[in-house]
Amino acid sequence: MISLDYDETLQAAAGHQAEEIRERIMREHPGEYVLAVEGNAPTGDGGVYCTVAGRTFLDILKESAEGAKAIIAWGSCASDGCVQAASPNPTGAKPVHEIIHSHPIINVPGCPPIAEVMTGVLTYILTFDKLPELDRFGRPKMFYGQRIHDKCYRRSYFDAGQFVETWEDDGARKGWCLYKMGCRGPMTYNSCSTFKWNNGVSFPIGSGHGCIGCSENKFWDNGPFYTRLTNVPLPGVESTPDKIGKYAAVAAGVGVAAHAASYAANQGIKKAKKNRQTKKLLESDKEE
Amino acid sequence: MARRVHPINIIDVARSPHRYFRRKYVWQWPVRIFHWVNAVAVTVLFSTGLYISHPILAPAGEPFNNFVMATVRQVHFIFAFIFLINFLWRIYWFWFGNNYARSGFPFFWRRSWWKDLFRQVGDYFSLKRGHVHLGHNALAGLSYTIFVIGLGWVQIFTGLALYSESNPGGFWSKLTGWVIPLLGGSMQTHMWHHLFAWGFIVFAILHVYIVFYDGQQYKNGLVTSMISGVKFYRNGDLENDKWLS
Prior knowledge:
Chain A is mainly alpha-helical. Chain A contains ten helices and seven strands. Helices cover 60% and strands 3% of the residues of chain B.
Protein backbone atom coordinates (compact mmCIF):
# COMPACT_ATOMS: atom_id res chain seq x y z
CA MET A 1 0.00 0.00 0.00
CA ILE A 2 1.21 3.47 -0.77
CA SER A 3 0.52 6.03 1.91
CA LEU A 4 1.59 9.56 1.11
CA ASP A 5 1.57 10.90 4.65
CA TYR A 6 4.12 13.63 4.25
CA ASP A 7 3.64 15.30 0.91
CA GLU A 8 2.98 19.01 0.77
CA THR A 9 0.30 18.83 -1.92
CA LEU A 10 -1.52 15.66 -0.87
CA GLN A 11 -1.20 15.44 2.92
CA ALA A 12 -4.27 16.02 5.11
CA ALA A 13 -2.31 17.58 7.92
CA ALA A 14 -0.67 20.99 7.96
CA GLY A 15 1.87 22.92 9.98
CA HIS A 16 3.05 21.28 13.21
CA GLN A 17 0.84 18.28 12.62
CA ALA A 18 2.54 17.58 9.31
CA GLU A 19 5.96 17.67 10.94
CA GLU A 20 4.66 15.42 13.65
CA ILE A 21 3.60 12.86 11.05
CA ARG A 22 7.07 12.88 9.53
CA GLU A 23 8.63 12.23 12.93
CA ARG A 24 6.10 9.48 13.67
CA ILE A 25 6.84 7.66 10.39
CA MET A 26 10.54 7.77 11.15
CA ARG A 27 9.95 6.47 14.67
CA GLU A 28 7.41 3.77 13.86
CA HIS A 29 8.69 2.44 10.53
CA PRO A 30 12.48 2.64 10.59
CA GLY A 31 14.00 0.97 7.56
CA GLU A 32 10.61 0.51 5.92
CA TYR A 33 9.60 3.83 4.44
CA VAL A 34 10.66 5.17 1.08
CA LEU A 35 11.86 8.76 1.14
CA ALA A 36 10.93 10.50 -2.08
CA VAL A 37 12.66 13.86 -2.30
CA GLU A 38 11.48 16.72 -4.44
CA GLY A 39 13.82 19.62 -5.00
CA ASN A 40 17.35 19.90 -3.76
CA ALA A 41 18.97 21.26 -0.65
CA PRO A 42 21.04 24.43 -0.81
CA THR A 43 24.21 23.73 1.15
CA GLY A 44 25.68 27.24 1.11
CA ASP A 45 25.79 29.20 4.40
CA GLY A 46 24.59 26.19 6.40
CA GLY A 47 21.62 25.59 4.13
CA VAL A 48 19.68 28.73 5.16
CA TYR A 49 18.36 29.34 1.65
CA CYS A 50 15.61 26.76 2.05
CA THR A 51 13.83 26.19 5.30
CA VAL A 52 10.82 24.04 6.20
CA ALA A 53 9.05 24.53 9.53
CA GLY A 54 11.91 26.65 10.82
CA ARG A 55 14.61 24.12 10.02
CA THR A 56 16.87 23.90 7.01
CA PHE A 57 15.90 21.54 4.23
CA LEU A 58 19.42 20.12 4.39
CA ASP A 59 18.93 19.20 8.02
CA ILE A 60 15.50 17.62 7.47
CA LEU A 61 16.76 15.70 4.43
CA LYS A 62 19.68 14.20 6.34
CA GLU A 63 17.49 13.33 9.31
CA SER A 64 14.73 11.72 7.24
CA ALA A 65 17.20 9.78 5.11
CA GLU A 66 18.68 7.94 8.08
CA GLY A 67 15.86 5.46 8.56
CA ALA A 68 14.76 5.21 4.95
CA LYS A 69 14.70 1.94 3.07
CA ALA A 70 15.52 3.72 -0.18
CA ILE A 71 15.52 7.24 -1.49
CA ILE A 72 13.90 8.37 -4.69
CA ALA A 73 15.07 11.66 -6.14
CA TRP A 74 11.99 13.02 -7.91
CA GLY A 75 12.77 15.28 -10.80
CA SER A 76 15.88 16.96 -12.12
CA CYS A 77 16.33 19.18 -9.04
CA ALA A 78 16.74 16.24 -6.73
CA SER A 79 18.58 14.10 -9.31
CA ASP A 80 20.94 16.55 -10.97
CA GLY A 81 20.55 19.95 -9.34
CA CYS A 82 18.65 21.47 -12.26
CA VAL A 83 18.12 25.25 -12.29
CA GLN A 84 19.13 25.87 -8.67
CA ALA A 85 22.50 24.25 -9.24
CA ALA A 86 23.01 25.96 -12.61
CA SER A 87 26.13 28.04 -12.91
CA PRO A 88 27.11 30.00 -10.82
CA ASN A 89 24.96 28.18 -8.24
CA PRO A 90 24.88 30.96 -5.59
CA THR A 91 23.16 28.86 -2.91
CA GLY A 92 25.40 25.83 -3.30
CA ALA A 93 22.46 23.64 -4.25
CA LYS A 94 23.34 19.96 -4.49
CA PRO A 95 21.40 16.97 -5.77
CA VAL A 96 20.43 14.32 -3.22
CA HIS A 97 23.11 11.82 -4.23
CA GLU A 98 25.81 14.36 -3.42
CA ILE A 99 24.45 14.83 0.10
CA ILE A 100 23.34 11.33 1.10
CA HIS A 101 25.84 8.56 0.51
CA SER A 102 24.61 5.90 2.89
CA HIS A 103 21.43 4.81 1.07
CA PRO A 104 20.51 3.52 -2.37
CA ILE A 105 19.20 6.45 -4.40
CA ILE A 106 16.98 6.18 -7.45
CA ASN A 107 17.25 9.20 -9.71
CA VAL A 108 14.11 9.99 -11.65
CA PRO A 109 15.15 13.10 -13.59
CA GLY A 110 12.93 15.25 -15.75
CA CYS A 111 11.66 18.75 -15.38
CA PRO A 112 9.15 17.46 -14.46
CA PRO A 113 9.49 13.69 -14.72
CA ILE A 114 6.75 11.84 -16.58
CA ALA A 115 3.87 10.87 -14.27
CA GLU A 116 3.82 7.29 -15.61
CA VAL A 117 7.51 6.97 -14.91
CA MET A 118 7.07 8.19 -11.33
CA THR A 119 4.21 5.83 -10.59
CA GLY A 120 6.01 3.09 -12.48
CA VAL A 121 9.03 3.31 -10.19
CA LEU A 122 6.85 3.23 -7.06
CA THR A 123 4.76 0.35 -8.41
CA TYR A 124 7.88 -1.65 -9.18
CA ILE A 125 9.19 -1.25 -5.64
CA LEU A 126 5.77 -2.11 -4.22
CA THR A 127 5.24 -5.14 -6.47
CA PHE A 128 8.65 -6.78 -6.41
CA ASP A 129 9.88 -5.41 -3.09
CA LYS A 130 13.21 -4.49 -4.60
CA LEU A 131 14.72 -1.52 -6.38
CA PRO A 132 14.61 -1.38 -10.16
CA GLU A 133 17.84 -1.92 -12.08
CA LEU A 134 19.74 1.35 -12.35
CA ASP A 135 22.15 2.70 -14.92
CA ARG A 136 25.46 4.54 -14.46
CA PHE A 137 23.64 7.68 -13.30
CA GLY A 138 21.31 5.90 -10.90
CA ARG A 139 18.30 6.06 -13.22
CA PRO A 140 15.93 3.12 -13.68
CA LYS A 141 17.02 1.39 -16.87
CA MET A 142 13.47 0.54 -17.85
CA PHE A 143 12.57 4.21 -18.31
CA TYR A 144 15.94 5.81 -19.03
CA GLY A 145 17.57 3.07 -21.10
CA GLN A 146 16.97 4.75 -24.43
CA ARG A 147 17.25 8.22 -25.83
CA ILE A 148 14.28 10.28 -27.02
CA HIS A 149 16.00 10.09 -30.41
CA ASP A 150 15.96 6.28 -30.49
CA LYS A 151 12.20 6.10 -30.53
CA CYS A 152 11.38 9.48 -32.00
CA TYR A 153 8.72 9.33 -34.69
CA ARG A 154 10.74 11.90 -36.67
CA ARG A 155 13.84 9.67 -36.69
CA SER A 156 13.36 8.74 -40.34
CA TYR A 157 13.79 12.41 -41.28
CA PHE A 158 17.02 12.50 -39.29
CA ASP A 159 18.41 9.47 -41.11
CA ALA A 160 17.26 10.89 -44.44
CA GLY A 161 19.04 14.18 -43.76
CA GLN A 162 15.87 16.29 -43.83
CA PHE A 163 15.99 19.01 -41.21
CA VAL A 164 13.89 21.97 -40.17
CA GLU A 165 15.93 25.16 -40.78
CA THR A 166 13.55 27.80 -39.45
CA TRP A 167 10.32 27.57 -37.48
CA GLU A 168 8.20 28.60 -40.44
CA ASP A 169 9.84 26.73 -43.33
CA ASP A 170 8.35 23.94 -45.37
CA GLY A 171 10.25 21.30 -43.38
CA ALA A 172 8.68 22.51 -40.15
CA ARG A 173 5.24 22.17 -41.72
CA LYS A 174 6.02 18.67 -42.94
CA GLY A 175 7.33 17.62 -39.55
CA TRP A 176 10.98 17.12 -40.46
CA CYS A 177 13.67 16.45 -37.86
CA LEU A 178 14.37 19.27 -35.37
CA TYR A 179 18.07 18.40 -34.98
CA LYS A 180 19.27 21.69 -36.46
CA MET A 181 16.88 23.64 -34.24
CA GLY A 182 18.89 22.43 -31.26
CA CYS A 183 16.82 19.36 -30.35
CA ARG A 184 18.47 17.49 -27.48
CA GLY A 185 16.70 14.23 -28.32
CA PRO A 186 19.92 12.51 -29.44
CA MET A 187 21.50 12.89 -26.00
CA THR A 188 18.54 12.74 -23.65
CA TYR A 189 17.58 9.51 -21.94
CA ASN A 190 13.90 9.51 -21.12
CA SER A 191 10.59 7.94 -22.09
CA CYS A 192 8.91 10.95 -23.70
CA SER A 193 8.88 9.47 -27.19
CA THR A 194 7.46 6.22 -25.78
CA PHE A 195 4.83 7.32 -23.24
CA LYS A 196 4.36 10.90 -24.37
CA TRP A 197 2.70 13.32 -21.95
CA ASN A 198 -0.76 13.92 -20.50
CA ASN A 199 -2.07 10.42 -21.12
CA GLY A 200 -0.27 10.14 -24.41
CA VAL A 201 -1.54 13.38 -25.96
CA SER A 202 1.77 14.71 -27.21
CA PHE A 203 5.36 15.54 -26.26
CA PRO A 204 7.61 18.50 -27.16
CA ILE A 205 8.82 17.12 -30.49
CA GLY A 206 5.28 16.07 -31.34
CA SER A 207 4.26 19.69 -30.83
CA GLY A 208 6.92 20.93 -33.23
CA HIS A 209 9.56 22.04 -30.73
CA GLY A 210 12.86 20.36 -30.06
CA CYS A 211 13.62 18.57 -26.81
CA ILE A 212 15.61 20.76 -24.39
CA GLY A 213 17.03 17.74 -22.57
CA CYS A 214 15.37 18.53 -19.24
CA SER A 215 16.18 15.12 -17.79
CA GLU A 216 19.90 15.47 -18.48
CA ASN A 217 22.45 16.73 -16.01
CA LYS A 218 23.30 20.44 -16.30
CA PHE A 219 20.85 21.08 -19.11
CA TRP A 220 20.58 24.71 -18.04
CA ASP A 221 24.29 25.22 -18.56
CA ASN A 222 24.34 23.62 -22.00
CA GLY A 223 22.75 26.50 -23.85
CA PRO A 224 21.83 27.99 -26.21
CA PHE A 225 18.80 25.71 -26.49
CA TYR A 226 18.36 26.40 -30.20
CA THR A 227 21.80 25.36 -31.43
CA ARG A 228 23.32 21.91 -31.56
CA LEU A 229 26.73 22.91 -30.25
CA THR A 230 27.15 24.62 -26.91
CA ASN A 231 29.50 27.51 -26.44
CA VAL A 232 33.05 26.86 -25.32
CA PRO A 233 33.02 27.17 -21.51
CA LEU A 234 36.39 28.84 -21.13
CA PRO A 235 36.61 31.97 -18.98
CA GLY A 236 36.26 35.06 -21.12
CA VAL A 237 35.41 33.05 -24.20
CA GLU A 238 31.82 33.25 -25.41
CA SER A 239 32.28 31.53 -28.71
CA THR A 240 31.26 28.48 -30.66
CA PRO A 241 33.81 25.72 -31.28
CA ASP A 242 33.59 26.37 -35.01
CA LYS A 243 34.55 30.01 -34.59
CA ILE A 244 37.56 29.15 -32.46
CA GLY A 245 38.58 26.39 -34.86
CA LYS A 246 38.37 28.70 -37.85
CA TYR A 247 40.38 31.41 -36.09
CA ALA A 248 43.07 28.86 -35.19
CA ALA A 249 43.20 27.56 -38.77
CA VAL A 250 43.40 31.10 -40.18
CA ALA A 251 46.14 31.96 -37.68
CA ALA A 252 48.12 28.89 -38.75
CA GLY A 253 47.60 29.78 -42.42
CA VAL A 254 48.69 33.39 -41.89
CA GLY A 255 51.77 32.23 -39.97
CA VAL A 256 52.71 29.82 -42.73
CA ALA A 257 52.13 32.44 -45.43
CA ALA A 258 54.23 35.01 -43.54
CA HIS A 259 57.06 32.51 -43.19
CA ALA A 260 56.88 31.55 -46.87
CA ALA A 261 56.84 35.22 -47.90
CA SER A 262 59.83 36.12 -45.75
CA TYR A 263 61.69 33.09 -47.06
CA ALA A 264 60.97 34.11 -50.65
CA ALA A 265 61.99 37.69 -49.91
CA ASN A 266 65.18 36.49 -48.27
CA GLN A 267 66.03 34.33 -51.29
CA GLY A 268 65.24 37.30 -53.56
CA ILE A 269 67.55 39.61 -51.61
CA LYS A 270 70.33 37.03 -51.79
CA LYS A 271 69.86 36.63 -55.53
CA ALA A 272 69.83 40.38 -56.11
CA LYS A 273 73.03 40.72 -54.12
CA LYS A 274 74.67 38.02 -56.19
CA ASN A 275 73.49 39.65 -59.42
CA ARG A 276 74.86 43.01 -58.33
CA GLN A 277 78.19 41.45 -57.52
CA THR A 278 78.48 39.75 -60.91
CA LYS A 279 77.44 42.98 -62.60
CA LYS A 280 80.15 44.85 -60.72
CA LEU A 281 82.70 42.24 -61.70
CA LEU A 282 81.68 42.44 -65.34
CA GLU A 283 81.84 46.24 -65.28
CA SER A 284 85.29 46.25 -63.69
CA ASP A 285 86.39 43.79 -66.38
CA LYS A 286 85.19 46.20 -69.05
CA GLU A 287 87.01 49.15 -67.47
CA GLU A 288 90.25 47.25 -67.50
CA MET B 1 92.59 -5.97 -46.90
CA ALA B 2 89.87 -7.46 -49.00
CA ARG B 3 87.08 -4.94 -49.04
CA ARG B 4 83.83 -5.54 -50.77
CA VAL B 5 83.48 -3.11 -53.60
CA HIS B 6 80.18 -1.35 -53.37
CA PRO B 7 78.98 0.94 -56.16
CA ILE B 8 79.00 3.89 -53.77
CA ASN B 9 82.66 3.27 -52.98
CA ILE B 10 83.64 3.61 -56.61
CA ILE B 11 83.02 7.33 -56.31
CA ASP B 12 85.70 8.78 -54.12
CA VAL B 13 83.52 10.00 -51.32
CA ALA B 14 86.41 10.76 -49.05
CA ARG B 15 87.92 13.31 -51.39
CA SER B 16 84.78 15.36 -51.99
CA PRO B 17 82.43 14.49 -49.16
CA HIS B 18 79.97 17.34 -49.71
CA ARG B 19 79.01 16.39 -53.25
CA TYR B 20 77.74 12.87 -53.00
CA PHE B 21 74.58 11.59 -51.38
CA ARG B 22 74.04 8.21 -49.84
CA ARG B 23 70.68 6.52 -49.43
CA LYS B 24 69.22 5.50 -46.16
CA TYR B 25 66.02 3.55 -45.52
CA VAL B 26 64.36 5.68 -42.86
CA TRP B 27 60.59 5.16 -42.86
CA GLN B 28 59.68 1.48 -42.74
CA TRP B 29 56.55 0.41 -44.57
CA PRO B 30 54.33 0.26 -41.43
CA VAL B 31 55.20 3.88 -40.69
CA ARG B 32 54.37 4.92 -44.24
CA ILE B 33 51.11 2.97 -44.28
CA PHE B 34 50.17 4.53 -40.94
CA HIS B 35 50.87 7.96 -42.33
CA TRP B 36 48.67 7.65 -45.40
CA VAL B 37 45.85 5.76 -43.73
CA ASN B 38 45.86 8.41 -41.02
CA ALA B 39 45.81 11.22 -43.58
CA VAL B 40 42.85 9.70 -45.42
CA ALA B 41 40.97 8.81 -42.21
CA VAL B 42 41.37 12.29 -40.70
CA THR B 43 40.24 13.94 -43.94
CA VAL B 44 37.14 11.74 -44.15
CA LEU B 45 36.41 12.07 -40.43
CA PHE B 46 36.70 15.85 -40.49
CA SER B 47 34.48 16.33 -43.52
CA THR B 48 31.83 13.83 -42.41
CA GLY B 49 32.00 15.33 -38.92
CA LEU B 50 31.28 18.79 -40.30
CA TYR B 51 28.23 17.41 -42.09
CA ILE B 52 27.00 15.61 -38.96
CA SER B 53 27.18 18.78 -36.88
CA HIS B 54 25.87 21.08 -39.62
CA PRO B 55 23.86 18.99 -42.07
CA ILE B 56 23.27 20.94 -45.26
CA LEU B 57 21.66 20.26 -48.63
CA ALA B 58 18.47 18.60 -47.46
CA PRO B 59 17.35 16.00 -50.00
CA ALA B 60 13.89 16.46 -51.51
CA GLY B 61 11.12 13.92 -51.35
CA GLU B 62 10.03 11.52 -48.69
CA PRO B 63 12.39 10.13 -46.06
CA PHE B 64 12.09 6.55 -47.29
CA ASN B 65 13.89 7.56 -50.48
CA ASN B 66 16.83 9.10 -48.66
CA PHE B 67 19.45 7.95 -46.21
CA VAL B 68 21.95 10.81 -46.27
CA MET B 69 22.60 11.48 -42.58
CA ALA B 70 22.60 7.79 -41.74
CA THR B 71 25.12 7.06 -44.51
CA VAL B 72 27.40 9.92 -43.52
CA ARG B 73 27.34 8.76 -39.90
CA GLN B 74 28.07 5.21 -41.01
CA VAL B 75 31.10 6.43 -42.99
CA HIS B 76 32.22 8.50 -40.00
CA PHE B 77 32.05 5.47 -37.71
CA ILE B 78 33.79 3.15 -40.18
CA PHE B 79 36.66 5.56 -40.64
CA ALA B 80 36.77 6.15 -36.90
CA PHE B 81 37.48 2.46 -36.41
CA ILE B 82 40.04 2.52 -39.22
CA PHE B 83 41.66 5.48 -37.46
CA LEU B 84 41.62 3.60 -34.15
CA ILE B 85 43.13 0.37 -35.49
CA ASN B 86 45.72 2.34 -37.43
CA PHE B 87 46.55 4.32 -34.29
CA LEU B 88 47.00 1.20 -32.16
CA TRP B 89 49.10 -0.35 -34.92
CA ARG B 90 51.41 2.66 -34.88
CA ILE B 91 51.78 2.39 -31.10
CA TYR B 92 52.83 -1.24 -31.58
CA TRP B 93 55.33 -0.18 -34.20
CA PHE B 94 56.71 2.53 -31.92
CA TRP B 95 58.18 -0.31 -29.87
CA PHE B 96 59.09 -2.74 -32.63
CA GLY B 97 60.15 -0.46 -35.48
CA ASN B 98 63.57 1.03 -36.14
CA ASN B 99 64.98 3.99 -34.22
CA TYR B 100 63.43 6.47 -36.65
CA ALA B 101 59.98 5.15 -35.71
CA ARG B 102 60.71 6.42 -32.21
CA SER B 103 62.42 9.66 -33.18
CA GLY B 104 59.27 11.73 -32.68
CA PHE B 105 59.06 10.95 -28.98
CA PRO B 106 59.53 14.04 -26.78
CA PHE B 107 62.61 13.13 -24.74
CA PHE B 108 62.02 16.11 -22.50
CA TRP B 109 64.27 14.75 -19.78
CA ARG B 110 67.25 14.94 -22.13
CA ARG B 111 69.20 18.16 -22.52
CA SER B 112 70.02 17.26 -26.10
CA TRP B 113 66.30 17.17 -26.93
CA TRP B 114 65.76 20.71 -25.63
CA LYS B 115 68.87 21.88 -27.46
CA ASP B 116 67.60 20.39 -30.70
CA LEU B 117 64.17 21.94 -30.11
CA PHE B 118 65.47 25.47 -29.65
CA ARG B 119 67.97 25.09 -32.48
CA GLN B 120 65.15 24.03 -34.82
CA VAL B 121 62.94 26.96 -33.79
CA GLY B 122 65.90 29.28 -34.37
CA ASP B 123 66.54 27.75 -37.79
CA TYR B 124 62.95 28.35 -38.88
CA PHE B 125 62.97 31.95 -37.73
CA SER B 126 66.34 32.80 -39.21
CA LEU B 127 65.38 31.15 -42.53
CA LYS B 128 68.69 29.29 -42.57
CA ARG B 129 69.15 25.89 -44.13
CA GLY B 130 69.49 24.53 -40.65
CA HIS B 131 70.36 21.04 -39.60
CA VAL B 132 69.33 18.00 -41.54
CA HIS B 133 67.65 15.24 -39.59
CA LEU B 134 66.91 11.88 -41.12
CA GLY B 135 64.40 11.13 -38.39
CA HIS B 136 62.22 13.78 -36.77
CA ASN B 137 63.75 16.87 -35.26
CA ALA B 138 62.64 17.68 -31.72
CA LEU B 139 60.11 20.33 -32.85
CA ALA B 140 58.51 18.01 -35.39
CA GLY B 141 58.39 15.24 -32.79
CA LEU B 142 56.72 17.57 -30.31
CA SER B 143 54.12 18.63 -32.86
CA TYR B 144 53.31 14.98 -33.67
CA THR B 145 53.05 14.18 -29.99
CA ILE B 146 50.59 17.01 -29.43
CA PHE B 147 48.62 17.03 -32.68
CA VAL B 148 48.63 13.38 -33.71
CA ILE B 149 49.01 11.37 -30.54
CA GLY B 150 47.45 13.79 -28.04
CA LEU B 151 44.60 14.91 -30.26
CA GLY B 152 44.22 11.35 -31.47
CA TRP B 153 43.62 10.04 -27.96
CA VAL B 154 41.19 12.87 -27.17
CA GLN B 155 39.19 12.23 -30.33
CA ILE B 156 39.24 8.46 -29.83
CA PHE B 157 37.93 8.68 -26.28
CA THR B 158 35.36 11.42 -26.83
CA GLY B 159 34.32 9.84 -30.13
CA LEU B 160 33.85 6.36 -28.71
CA ALA B 161 31.99 7.80 -25.71
CA LEU B 162 29.56 9.56 -28.03
CA TYR B 163 29.32 6.45 -30.18
CA SER B 164 28.42 4.42 -27.09
CA GLU B 165 25.41 6.63 -26.32
CA SER B 166 23.16 4.55 -28.53
CA ASN B 167 23.82 1.50 -26.37
CA PRO B 168 24.27 2.49 -22.74
CA GLY B 169 25.82 -0.28 -20.71
CA GLY B 170 27.25 -1.93 -23.83
CA PHE B 171 30.89 -2.69 -24.57
CA TRP B 172 31.96 0.79 -25.70
CA SER B 173 29.86 2.37 -22.97
CA LYS B 174 31.67 0.35 -20.32
CA LEU B 175 35.03 1.14 -21.88
CA THR B 176 34.64 4.85 -22.61
CA GLY B 177 31.29 5.94 -21.12
CA TRP B 178 33.04 7.52 -18.14
CA VAL B 179 34.28 10.29 -20.44
CA ILE B 180 30.82 11.86 -20.72
CA PRO B 181 30.27 12.68 -17.01
CA LEU B 182 33.94 13.62 -16.74
CA LEU B 183 33.52 16.35 -19.35
CA GLY B 184 30.19 17.48 -17.89
CA GLY B 185 27.67 15.71 -20.07
CA SER B 186 26.98 14.74 -23.64
CA MET B 187 26.65 18.32 -24.92
CA GLN B 188 30.05 19.24 -23.55
CA THR B 189 31.57 16.04 -24.95
CA HIS B 190 30.16 16.89 -28.39
CA MET B 191 31.55 20.41 -28.08
CA TRP B 192 35.09 19.26 -27.18
CA HIS B 193 35.05 16.55 -29.86
CA HIS B 194 34.08 19.21 -32.39
CA LEU B 195 36.54 21.84 -31.16
CA PHE B 196 39.52 19.48 -31.07
CA ALA B 197 38.75 18.25 -34.58
CA TRP B 198 39.93 21.68 -35.77
CA GLY B 199 43.33 20.84 -34.30
CA PHE B 200 43.85 18.44 -37.19
CA ILE B 201 43.25 21.27 -39.67
CA VAL B 202 45.77 23.49 -37.88
CA PHE B 203 48.19 20.58 -37.87
CA ALA B 204 47.67 19.78 -41.56
CA ILE B 205 48.42 23.40 -42.55
CA LEU B 206 51.63 23.53 -40.48
CA HIS B 207 52.72 20.00 -41.37
CA VAL B 208 52.30 20.25 -45.14
CA TYR B 209 53.99 23.65 -45.26
CA ILE B 210 56.97 22.60 -43.16
CA VAL B 211 57.44 19.38 -45.11
CA PHE B 212 57.72 21.30 -48.37
CA TYR B 213 59.84 24.02 -46.77
CA ASP B 214 62.26 21.51 -45.28
CA GLY B 215 62.28 19.53 -48.51
CA GLN B 216 63.26 22.70 -50.36
CA GLN B 217 65.93 23.56 -47.79
CA TYR B 218 67.54 20.16 -47.40
CA LYS B 219 66.93 18.72 -50.89
CA ASN B 220 67.34 15.25 -49.42
CA GLY B 221 64.20 13.54 -50.71
CA LEU B 222 62.20 14.48 -47.62
CA VAL B 223 58.88 14.86 -49.42
CA THR B 224 59.10 11.59 -51.35
CA SER B 225 60.46 9.70 -48.37
CA MET B 226 56.94 9.11 -47.06
CA ILE B 227 56.28 7.11 -50.23
CA SER B 228 59.64 5.48 -50.85
CA GLY B 229 60.84 5.34 -47.27
CA VAL B 230 64.26 6.54 -48.41
CA LYS B 231 66.12 9.73 -47.56
CA PHE B 232 69.50 10.91 -48.81
CA TYR B 233 72.34 12.20 -46.70
CA ARG B 234 75.78 13.63 -47.05
CA ASN B 235 78.64 13.52 -44.64
CA GLY B 236 77.79 15.29 -41.46
CA ASP B 237 74.04 14.94 -41.88
CA LEU B 238 73.86 11.96 -39.58
CA GLU B 239 75.46 13.95 -36.77
CA ASN B 240 72.17 15.69 -36.00
CA ASP B 241 70.39 12.43 -35.31
CA LYS B 242 72.91 11.34 -32.72
CA TRP B 243 70.89 12.73 -29.84
CA LEU B 244 68.24 10.15 -30.57
CA SER B 245 70.22 7.15 -29.46
